[in-house]
Amino acid sequence: MRIAVVATVVLSAALAGPAPAQRMRPEAPNSLPATEPAVTAAYGSDPLQVGELRLPAGKGPFPVAVVIHGGCWTKGFATKRHTAAMASALTRRGLATWNVEYRQVGDPGAGWPGTFLDWGAATDHLRALAKTHPIDLSRVVVTGHSAGAHAALFVAARPKLPAGSEIRGADPLKVKAAVAIDGPGDLVPFVGADAQICGRPVIEPLMGGGPAAVPARYAQGSPAALLPLGVRQTLVSSSRVLTPEAAEAYRAAATAAGDKVDVRVMADTGHFEPIAPGTAEWAEVEALILRAAGLDPR
Hints:
By secondary structure, this protein is of the alpha/beta class. It has helices at about 1-15, 85-90, 115-125, 125-130, 145-155, 195-200, 205, 215-220, 245-255, 280-290, and strands spanning about 40, 50-55, 60-70, 95-100, 135-145, 175-180, 230-235, 260-265. Helix content is about 30%, strand content about 15%. The protein has an eight-stranded mixed β-sheet with strand order 1-2-4-3-5-6-7-8, sandwiched between helices.
């Protein structure tokens, strides 16, 4: 029932009017300066199952952010380079970052369940990294942009899945908080709207069908269907992908279920400024992520 209610509210909000004009070009974050990672490590056997660990100066152990790029869940839109500048900026502020790549629709093994399994396996790999690097597994936050925002909320929700779920993984690492930057918390209302946002249908290829055809997949893959997640959540809306109305609908459902969700609306901006260090939007997002990790953003 929760899926249907949230889907109706969010879909109507998403289609209520045209999105604001794009400002920063989609490829612009790829050109922003980024530091070299301390280590690039594989979390699986596929060449795309890899991440970059950046560590702050000092001894640690450091709180750590899992950083998940967007790109319409689809090969060809974005890679981990898209969030490398963001990860570098957070690391300069004292937060270790694990900026991950994953299989997207169009890559072998992507879609259901592969893409979801990659997000989970990448997060769980922090346990292996913690054996040789000074990161604090009790202070893990997960953040993502656009499609990565959905991924971040899914990673936070993953421990709620039944043990037999295709996308849960054997032992999900519990995170402290999730910061979802301008992306959906519910996939259902994006079926249809996705083609307007991404230029092609992307949700049904990701899920292997629509909500009516594979409802159990949407019940497990849409964080809104798994509320309460049991962790603090922050949603950032730039009015382009996650409208303020959609963010408020998610917050209302989450609050009713017992979660704490903050919403930050960034009016009159584009989709990419919130992940671009040097912009006013990024300064606000950076502060939200640092607070979620228990760090002082001043």
